[in-house]
Amino acid sequence: MFMKIHEVKEKCYLETLEESITNVEMVINHLEKLALREGEFASHILRKDRIISILHLELALASYCVLLRKMRENQMIIYNDKLRADINSIIHSNRFEYFGSYIIVHSQKGKEEVDLHSLLRYGKSILKENEA
């Protein structure tokens, strides 16, 4: 039996969402491991690795947020205004600071705080709802 185009598209988006969440979590785990290694290595080595990891996190989150926006535009999901604001902040940011459970996004609008764990929980809830 052939799947309808909409079903194929939704399956593709959900698979990509899972990969995107995993990617973000891998970068966060790396940042947490770096924090635990402070004092073990020269500070300049850890500092450079942390900067690179934060840039990877910025890109991973931007991809994740673009995917969420795309899913909303294709009427696969609905999210509230707070989540919409966080998603837009990340997509339009020119840099951000990582503080573990939250990030501060810098954009033309100024500084905005984004609850990182809440953002990831939302994506995981989508996957959980669509488990079959």
What does this structure look like?
This protein has one domain. Helices cover 67% and strands 12% of the residues. The protein has helices at residues 5-36, 43-73, 81-91, 116-129; strands at residues 95-98, 102-107, 110-115. It has a three-stranded antiparallel β-sheet. A hairpin with a 2-residue loop joins strand 2 (102-107) and strand 3. Helix 1 (5-36) runs antiparallel to helix 2 (43-73), helix 1 runs antiparallel to helix 4 and helix 2 (43-73) packs across helix 3. The model has no long low-confidence stretch (mean pLDDT 92).
What would a concise description of this structure say?
By secondary structure, the protein is an alpha+beta fold. It has one domain.
The side-by-side strand order for the widest beta sheet comes to 1-2-3
Classification by helices and strands: alpha+beta
* Total DSSP E strands: 3
Tell me the span between the first and last alpha carbons.
17 Å
Give the ordered list of helices and strands. Answer: HHHEEEH
Q: What's the SSE blueprint?
A:
Blueprint lengths: L4 H32 L6 H31 L7 H11 L3 E4 L3 E6 L2 E6 H14 L3
Antiparallel strand pairs: 1-2, 2-3
Helix pairs in contact: 1-2, 1-4, 2-3
From the structure above, extract its key features.
single chain, 132 residues, alpha+beta, three-stranded antiparallel β-sheet, 12% strand, globular
